[in-house]
Amino acid sequence: MGCQDDEKLVQTVCEIYDNISALESLKPSKDVNMLFTQLVLTCLPPTPIDVTKLCKRVQDMRSKLIKLCGEAEGHLEAHFSTLLGSYDNPLHHLHIFPYYTNYLKLSLLEFSILSNHCTHVPTQVAFVGSGPLPLTSIVLASFHLTDTTFHNYDIDPVANSMALQLVVSDPDLSKRMLFRTSDIMDVTDELKDYEVVFLAALVGMGREEKSRAIEHLAKHMAPGALLMLRSAHGARGFLYPIVDACDLRGFEVLSVFHPTDEVVNSVIIARKHAMPIIHMTTSTPNLDQGLGSMILPCKCSGEIQAFNPLINHGTMIEELAMEEHFS
Q1: What is the pLDDT of residue 276?
Q2: How far is CA 285 from CA 177, 256, 278, in A?
Q3: Which of 89, 160, 174, 269 is 20 to 30 A from 278, comparing alpha carbons?
Q4: How far apart (Å, rounded) are the C-alpha atoms in residues 235 and 49?
Q5: Is 113 left (phi over 0), alpha (psi -120 to 50) or beta?
Q6: What is the spatial distance between Cα 294 and Cα 243, in angstroms, rounded to a whole number?
Q7: What is the CA radius of gyration of the chain?
Q8: d(CA 111, CA 109)
Q9: Are the CB atoms for 97 and 80 separated by under 8 Å?
Q10: Distance between CA atoms of 196 and 186, rounded to whole angstroms?
Q11: Burial class (CB in 10 A: 0-12, 13-18, 19+), 287
Q12: What processes in GO biological process is this protein linked to (predicted)?
């Protein structure tokens, strides 16, 4: 994609943003669904564009657009959580959510990545920012981590109440899916209990807020525990916040996956350093050296473009060998 193509893409996104901004409500409706579908289809094709390097006007628009996307996604999840909660067995009807297939693919991708870096099945994990429709936790608990307990954290008590309604009729998940109403910034000692922490894409809409959340996790998670978080790549950065390896101080980035199919989010897995980090003051000030661990450059090393990451018949993705690039 050349400069003209980049300009055309940005112009199209700006026009869609203007139309979304003019909406009276972001709750599901014909106009809302049409505009956000148009936005996703515009941003989905893989492109080399770096949205973080666009002009300030576009950066400001992008920040506002990500918040609008988050708000619309919240309304969409609440709408379908309410609908699913009206059934006697909500989990039997998850397919009515229009993006359920994407969650199946994303959860399989995350489980596959986790399996490559975790030596055993975790006893209990935390999912931060689970929302009213915690599909990632539900899919992972139902199909992949079938003996693991999930502690789902959300700041909104209404969202947690709606989420609980989805699993309460299931004899297994009702015991293994726990919901906690807390701001994750207020959760400290409990974080040491989790072998894996999942951080939802919309926890921390801006880079500073996201960095504060990651810094809090780095301070309170158990040494050696794994952090799985979602990012975005290319034009998909208009839809979700982008997390760079530089934002993961206190962690060793193990791998980064950029799907190129309809799964929108990139997936990053990182391990909390077992010992404190020494901040170097040499000619390479942007590098952190973890004692007993690899040195990471400030850009994401080991980035993987996961073309068609899901093999037919539900087999695991094949992780490519990572190469470290030191600049």
Answers
A1: 54
A2: 43, 23, 11
A3: 269
A4: 6
A5: alpha
A6: 20
A7: 20
A8: 6
A9: yes
A10: 18
A11: middle
A12: nicotianamine biosynthetic process
Give the Cα separation of 235 and 6 in Å (integer): 9
pLDDT of residue 34: 97
Instruction: Going from the first residue of the chain to its last (327 residues), give the mean pLDDT of each consecutive group of 10, the final group possibly shorter.
Output: 77 97 96 96 93 94 96 96 96 96 94 92 96 97 97 97 97 97 95 96 85 94 96 95 90 93 93 63 33 30 37 31 30
3-state secondary structure 156-174: CHHHHHHHHHHHCCCCCHH
State how beta strands 295-296 and 288-290 pair: antiparallel
Closest CA to 51 of 234, 303, 201: 234
CB atoms within 10 A of CB 15: 12
pLDDT for the residue numbered 285: 34
3-class DSSP state of 306: strand
**Any idea which residue has 């934002």 for tokens?**
247
* Cα–Cα distance for residue pair 198/110, rounded to 1 Å: 10
Instruction: Specify the pLDDT at position 282.
Output: 34
Query: How deeply is 249 buried, as exposed, middle or buried, from its count of CB atoms within 10 A (0-12, 13-18, 19+)?
Result: middle
Cα–Cα distance measured from residue 141 to residue 145, given in angstroms and rounded to the nearest whole number = 5
CATH placement of domain 100-314? 3.40.50.150
What does the pLDDT read at residue 247? 87
- Give the residue extent of every domain in the chain: 3-95, 100-314
| Distance (Å, whole) CA 245 – CA 214 | 11
| Contacts with 299 (C-beta within 8 Å, 6 or more apart), sequence order | 244, 245, 246, 325, 327
Q: Which two tokens stand for residue 253?
A: 């980035």
What is the C-alpha separation between 226 and 111, in angstroms, rounded?
A: 12
What is residue 119's predicted lDDT score, i.e. its pLDDT?
83
pLDDT of 202 reads 86
Q: Which pTM does this prediction carry?
A: 0.82
pLDDT of 196: 97
